[in-house]
Amino acid sequence: MTLLRSALFFIWFAFISATLAIFCLPLLALPGRGAAWVGYTWSRLSLSGLRILAGTRFEVRGTPPPNGVLVAVKHMSMWDTLAIYALLDDPAIVAKRDLLRIPFYGWYLKRARMIPIDRDGKASALRAMAAAARGEIARGRSIAIFPEGTRKQPGAAPDYKPGVAGLYGQLDVPCYPVALNSGLFWTGPMGFVKKKGTIVIAFLDPIPPGLPRRDFMARLEAAIEGATAKLLEDGRKPRKS
Fold first, then answer.
1. For 22-40, what is each residue's pLDDT tens digit?
2. What are phi and psi of 227, to 5 degrees?
């Protein structure tokens, strides 16, 4: 049944992705809020389909942060991107530049003013990312970043990149850590398998601005990894019948 439910969701996901991408093309001629609406609608429809077709629900713990802050999110699956876009108010998400080159998908990312980052991680790339983030903070948007830079399997050793510390130092705003356990439920080759259950995403206490780089990174990693480990432990427990 898991594979059948996963296949049904895949069909739904492909349908809404293609439909919105094609029929909402005129919105690309409008200000960025048009593309942001498409992203929000796509995320909410995806999460609803996941619940109805695959039996994969989600629970939010804590309070999503206000606008104008830095949000650092644990990354285990594509679900994380959908959820953070649906739960925050038009965040500017730091995304790999390669994604912005994908036809249709990349067009909407650009119009919604997502923040590109090069894979090489050179100083010039980090400076460009920080400059773009400052501009979006000035517009009142929050910046969402996956501090490990890529998806991690549940329980894998953490590997936090310097980009999040660079943004924290440049933006001078609170950083809200976010833990989750989506990798237990959105899994399998290419993330095809969707398991029945409840994904938990937890918005943790903010880290105030102005900390030394080393102290910030230690606090961020301890907060996210500690909360994530607990969510993974709880998520692996057998469901009560």
1. 999 999 987 768 899 999 9
2. -70, -40
